[in-house]
């Protein structure tokens, strides 16, 4: 394998076409430089320079090798620069999981916005994954970060969790229903309604929140059609197929025939960011630090 140091020595001599000036530029003595070039020629089996007492010139083989040597050194330089950036946490790749409703959250948008500005050389990849599945995939290394809702104690999997913000719950109801005219609803007022939910086994924290609300109110919920997208649930409400309990920011989904009514009692969900430590990459640690800043600003 070629010695990269000798490649650098060769390129410098080729650029100066003078061993003395090249040695000065490289800050080494001329005799060792001459020996290194001779050793490189022996290793390659070709003459790189034509030397005389008055001049140094590249041979045709040397001129061709110079092009290749520069390409190699440039690639090595880029690799070294990339490695330094990754060590500093300003380059790399972060696999991010999110639940279907999270992208509507301003906190999510703000964290991703800050990451884009602070870490422009970090490749952020996004994958829609339910909260429970996110935590499994973070634990096994498939995901680096997960945006979800508090549904259970993440520490069971050795995960770290940051509460980014707390989002109130609202009822999405058909605009033609009596509920739509009320400024706020006690959850018990919905006892006779059909609830639109995420599929069983999807791992939705919103389903878990609905189960908790029903248990507290002594209601056995009647379940209607299911959907894996919150936007689809809202569309089903517009079609008068039932009501849905959703985060308050879902109100940005304005659908004709749907009214969002706050729930009395301060019911809400904690929007969380999950990861595993020790960090697999410095850029993940930087991302979490940015999320902490947003959570602090939101408090």
UniProtKB/TrEMBL annotation:
GO MF annotations in UniProt: DNA binding; DNA-binding transcription factor activity
Record-linked InterPro entries: LysR_HTH_N, LysR_subst-bd, WH-like_DNA-bd_sf, WH_DNA-bd_sf
Domain HTH lysR-type: 2-59
Keywords of this entry: DNA-binding, Transcription, Transcription regulation
Pfam family, one: LysR_substrate
Keyword Transcription applies: yes
Entries under SUPFAM superfamilies matching the protein: Periplasmic binding protein-like II, Winged helix' DNA-binding domain
GO annotations of cellular component type: protein-DNA complex
Annotated signal peptide: none
Protein family according to the UniProt entry: Belongs to the LysR transcriptional regulatory family.
Protein name: LysR family transcriptional regulator
Top-level taxonomy: Bacteria, Pseudomonadati, Pseudomonadota, Betaproteobacteria, Burkholderiales
